[in-house]
Write a structure and sequence with these properties.
Chain A: This is Orc1-like AAA ATPase domain-containing protein. Chain A: Pfam families: ORC-CDC6-like (PF24389). Chain A: It comes from Kiloniella laminariae. The complex is a heterodimer of chains A (593) and B (296). Chain A is of the alpha/beta class. Chain A has a domain of 153 residues. Chain A is 49% helix and 9% strand. Chain A contains 22 helices and nine strands. Chain A has a five-stranded parallel sheet with strand order 2-3-4-1-5. Chain A has a two-stranded parallel sheet with strand order 6-9. In chain A, a hairpin with a 6-residue loop joins strand 7 and strand 8. Chain A is globular and about 85 Å long. The two termini of chain A are 38 Å apart. The longest helix of chain B has 17 residues. In chain B, helix 1 packs parallel to helix 2, helix 3 runs parallel beside helix 4 and helix 4 packs across helix 8. In chain B, the strands form five sheets. Chain B has a six-stranded mixed sheet, sandwiched between helices. In chain B, strands 8-15-14-9-10-13 form a six-stranded mixed sheet, with helices on both faces. A two-stranded antiparallel sheet of chain B has the order 6-17. Chain B has two domains: 135 residues, 3-Layer(aba) Sandwich (Rossmann fold), CATH 3.40.50; 142 residues, Rossmann fold, CATH 3.40.50. In chain B, strand 11 and strand 12 form a beta hairpin. The chains are: A alpha/beta (593), B alpha/beta (296). At the A-B interface, helix 6, helix 8 and helix 18 of A face helix 3, strand 7, strand 8 and helix 5 of B.
Amino acid sequence: MTTADLIKNPFEYDAAGNLDVQDLLDVFVEDHNYSRFICAPRNVFLIGERGSGKSMTLRFNEFRSRNANDRRHNQQINCDYVGVLVECKTPLYARRDDSFEGADELKSQLISEHLLVTEIGQALAISLSSCQSKISREENKNILTSLELFFDTQLTKQTDKLFEAIRLHFKKLNLNAQRDMNTFQWDKDDREYVTFSSAILPLLEELRSVDFFKNSHFMIMIDDAQNLNSYQQRILNSWISYRNQTVFSFKIGCAKSEYTDYSTMSSAPILEGHDYIVLDMEQPFQNRTSDFGQFAREVVSKRLAKVGLNNENNSLIENFFPESIPVKSAIQACTEKIIEEFKTKNPKATEKQARDWGYKYGRVAYFRNRSAKAGLPVYSGFDTISHLSSGVVRSLLKPCYYMYDAARSKNSGQPVHSIPSDIQSEILKNESDKLWSQVKDLHRTVTDCTEEDAAAIYNLLDNLGNYFSERLMNHKSEPRILAFVISGRNETDMNLLEPLIKICRSAGLIYVRRGVSRDKGKREEFYTPNRMLWPTKGLDPIGQHGRASIPAKDLVAATYGKNIPLTIQNQSESNQQEFELFQTPELFTGEET
Amino acid sequence: MNGEKLPRVDKIICLAGWEPRFLEGVKKGLELTQAQECIIFYAEEFTNKSENNINELEEFCEKTNIKIVKNKLFYNSPLETKKIILSTFNQYKENDQILIDITTMTRELIWMILGTLTAKKINVNYIYWRPETTAHWTSKNSSRPRLVMGRAGVSEYGKPTLVAVTTGFDPSRLDQMVCYFEPEETILFLQEGHQFENHINNIKIYDGYRLGSTQAKQYSIDSYGPDHGLEVITTILSPYLETHNIVLSSFGPKPSALALHKFAQAHPDVALAYTPALEFNEDYSRGIGHCVWGQI
């Protein structure tokens, strides 16, 4: 390891597309719960907003990355699942539906499919280009001959290498179609357009005639699918509905709030569970077998290994991000006191019940007992950082990046082995302040968000923060809740709230998840504001399981600057809840899942 | 310069605006060029704001025996606008002499019209009337950027995106461009000088501009110069033509849109984009100053 490696900040949080393959392999932590769904002959939607890890996951599963990973681990190249990554992020995807509006519907569909298919064709050639040497000359020649017949064109004008010939062929088709559109005469042309059936299916079949790919299943991985126009989304859904997944399947990465049409070209719906499964990249908290806290540790450990810090005695993370000792001691003292009080009031309680009570209320006691003059709390320790990330990997790495930089500056540029708790706290508060500034300027960065919307969202989040704060200080049974459900929904209020929530979702300010409600076990949507908002408000980012029920009318009023009223429970209600709580221990996890 | 040496033309084309310089500018243009026909485009969405100016211009043309052609466009429907432009200019011929008054035209319309007319090899003269004074804000609440119909360029799969803009007083439009296109590179061309407090309202606000992980590169241009910044733009952007998909936009002084038009005309794979605003400052400009004019 060179000195340069040691000094480089290991917490770079660049977008996946900006990493080369080796860097990607250095930092990516494979979540095997996702891999077993992705490397399988089934259609998968990976949904989540920016920074949730969709693109990284797809890039890791691309054939070139998997190959490089196999070589790293001295394994033979595995061709069982061949990932082809299609990135929908060139300016071509800014040609939205109005490029076709008023034109012949059929031609609009044909051109849309043609453009998408020719991008898939190019992506396939690029993803597999490193395998050119694995194909014999005879196989190369045979496939090219077959494809020339299928495509009715000469492929070998510029090259006789299979994948380069394929790439150039689809590139030419794609560019010609774009030029046709620019002349505004495209809807009068008789030019032939390719479809998935006419171009990609024969190509995949031909590839499977090659010894190297004879047992391969091709995963066509389309990233940023929300950028597809409405024709392309429906066309893609139609492909998904084929459900003949012997040779290929689709893995589609998209922003949750923007890919909303799940119907085919014939307007039939594609069905979750039947035609595809969903991996919600924002829900790691929810899944106990994919614990984000553990995952976050793996991500950070791998990053630290890049600078020569190894987790030899499993205490690397704690040593690198130490919690403030005074805070830790104070919370410990409050917890012990709470436990003593509980035992006094409940002499028949078990030790576990007493510990659980302490776990639940110890931190509350600490926050409640802080002096009003003490200022904002100190935020430190990896658990705090992990919770503040709200389950989004980029939001985990970003503050770590700035912490590392700050610590290195203080260390006169020398390698960092630990980040003092005061630096951690300062950076986390700065990040929180920056997030609030971004809220104020949302109209500058989020499409179709006006200044008025930004102001309403600021008010909403501000009042939610005040509500959670009041809850922390006064609520008897669930003081550390940081999520809510909307009760008393009505059309008028929801028409006001939903567009604002949509903006918040796309800006990563509110995460919308589904969970089991207390109302006869029904599923309900619940909303978790980005926890990085809360250090500015002095809240405890390590929330608890549970959701507050806030009436829609109160949320609407909050957008106008009104406080959200908190119902303070009376003591008997609180006692009853506590009793129920400890009769049904599975409802209590001690922290939000 | 006040256009005294403007050539004679057959027709003047303009987009109706609510600003005083629209009315005065077009009248002056008609007088100086002795045009016999005035094509007034007007946006349906802003009819009520520009109605008075349109009526006055119609009266003026009637009194001076100038033929008026009024065509409605749609700010929110670029496809319909494009169709109207094509049908308006359908019969125009190579030797037609045209003056396009870009003073109150949107950049999108400028590019659509120039794209259509230059494809017909028509000699296009242009004129732009500067305001006497300006307010500190022009527009706000930007919407999703869109590629200009017929000027959308050609994007090559696998190439990163470069966004290059001439900056203006409304940074939110640049922010929307960067957030939407997620460029690998961002290049800003900043108007030089202190006119209209440019150094405060423009240069200063983009100092050190970055959004996300991209730091923008910055260069100075003079949109009011003879080439409106074309030489600088060409020098800076040419090295990127083979390596990037380039998207251009103009948020700065209106004549910079002409330089971008010429660059995109010379390099048809380059895209021109427009970021609509939901709100315009009706009191942005006051009075009428000097003009810049030339030939495309």
